[in-house]
Write a structure and sequence with these properties.
The protein contains three helices and twelve strands. The chain is an alpha+beta fold and 205 residues long. The radius of gyration is 21 Å and the shape is elongated.
């Protein structure tokens, strides 16, 4: 079947308009279906936390398949996120280890969760090889101004992660002190993920 030039332009414009409207609805939260994500998140020690840990000769290491670069640990993961940021969960692979003065604290099986206006991290925390405790370890702010959603990606940059009292207690048990005694963030988190179902939530005709 052949189309005239004007009909071809009309078809292209119609498809383009449908895509733009669909993506706008996703970003506005009008579509309820969750976005499927796969990507990496990087946890960088805040300057104050890095100084406090260094003063006690505590180092930060990665547990594979996570990787470390200086005072930053990067972990791969995959999960889901509501387009309006009212819910979501992204389990992360690998973990991180704080080690010094003959003691260590391992954080593994971490997952990031999103609820209205707040994110939080759940993880297994092990001090000196003792049985792991499943703890709510950190909280972080969530808002449309902090999260960037494009047609194919979701990202955030330098989002502050603040330790919970339970996590502070684990650090104190391992190293004798909380690395964030003044309430500053332990980590600044930067993450980027590909949306693996960018049109999965669009209504079917």
């Amino acid at each position: 079947m052949k189309f005239s030039g004007s009909k071809k332009r009309l078809v292209v414009l119609s498809i383009t308009g449908a895509v733009v409207l669909g993506l706008g609805a996703v970003q506005a939260g009008a579509i309820a279906a969750n976005l499927n994500l796969r990507g990496k998140g990087t946890f960088c020690l805040s300057p104050e936390a890095a100084r406090n840990l260094a003063s006690k000769s505590v180092t930060l290491e990665a547990i594979a398949p996570a990787t470390v670069d200086g005072t930053c640990v990067t972990m791969p993961g995959a999960g889901t996120l509501a387009p309006d940021l009212t819910g979501g969960e992204v389990p992360l692979e690998g973990g991180m280890r704080f080690q010094g003065a003959g003691h260590r604290l391992d954080i593994t099986r971490m997952s990031g969760h999103v609820r209205i206006n707040e994110g939080y991290n759940i993880a297994d925390v092990t001090v000196d090889g003792e049985p792991a405790a499943d703890l709510d370890i950190a909280h972080w702010p969530v808002s449309m101004s902090r999260v960037s959603i494009t047609p194919t990606t979701v990202s955030m940059k330098d989002n502050p992660l603040t330790l919970t009292d339970a996590a502070k207690g684990a650090f104190t048990k391992a190293f004798g002190a909380d690395p964030t005694p003044d309430g500053e963030a332990l980590f600044l988190f930067t993450g980027k993920a590909e949306i693996t179902n960018p049109f999965g939530g669009l209504p079917k005709p």
